[in-house]
Design a protein that fits this description.
Distance between the termini: 41 Å
Strand content: over 45%
Number of strands: 11
CATH superfamily: Lipid/polyisoprenoid-binding, YceI-like
CATH class: Mainly Beta
CATH architecture: Beta Barrel
Helix content: 10-25%
Length: about 190
């Protein structure tokens, strides 16, 4: 017969084992900026324009077995946008657009990550941009290439919801309200851990 003390010990061991198993597939990820990209596409007078952010960073602790235990924070340096017309790079930093002097970065912080299928995740969280915060939910394609994890997706945003384009630039016949953020995030495990 098993004593109460032995039962508690066995229960403690089982909890410890389950905890170890749930984290066995979790690891901290380091962003590989050279292989990653964050771009925005918008329409100016009905002509699509794509521009890329040159600087961004992430903190990701990804749990492949239990994505709901994962943590994600992603920052974009708003001063690093590179437009096809370089003379406009300084223009978008002004108060009417990004107001990067007051709001130098955009930040997304995930509150929930869940598995949809073997290749897809659904991510929910808060995007703070130009001092305004909105809750977003979007799909992410996830795959593993050797030791690298690759996350890809796109997020439709309304620029006016974040007061991007103030004054005369609120006119959506000049610059459309919809902006598509497209990302490819490539990571490698920190310290080679997996």
């Amino acid at each position: 017969m098993v004593s109460a003390l032995q039962k508690r010990w066995l229960l403690g061991m089982a909890v410890s084992l389950l905890s170890m198993l749930s984290t066995a597939f979790a690891w901290s990820e380091k962003l590989d900026a050279s292989q990653s990209s964050v771009a925005i596409t918008f329409k100016q007078m009905d002509v699509p324009i794509t521009a890329y952010f040159k600087r961004f960073s992430s903190q990701l602790n990804f749990n492949a077995a239990h994505p709901e235990l994962s943590q994600l924070e992603f920052d974009i340096d708003m001063t690093s946008l590179n437009l096809p017309a370089p003379e406009l790079n300084g223009e978008v930093l002004k108060k009417e657009w990004f107001n990067s002097a007051a709001f130098p970065k955009a930040q997304f912080k995930a509150s929930q990550i869940k598995r949809i299928n073997a290749a897809q995740l659904e991510v929910s969280g808060k995007l703070t941009l130009k001092g305004r915060t909105q809750v977003l939910t979007f799909r992410v394609l996830q795959k593993q290439e050797a030791q690298r994890l690759v996350f890809e997706g796109s997020i439709p945003l309304k620029r006016l919801s974040f007061q991007i384009g103030e004054g005369e630039w609120k006119d959506t016949s000049m610059v459309a309200d919809e902006v598509i953020v497209k990302f490819k995030i490539v990571t490698t495990p920190i310290n080679g851990a997996q």
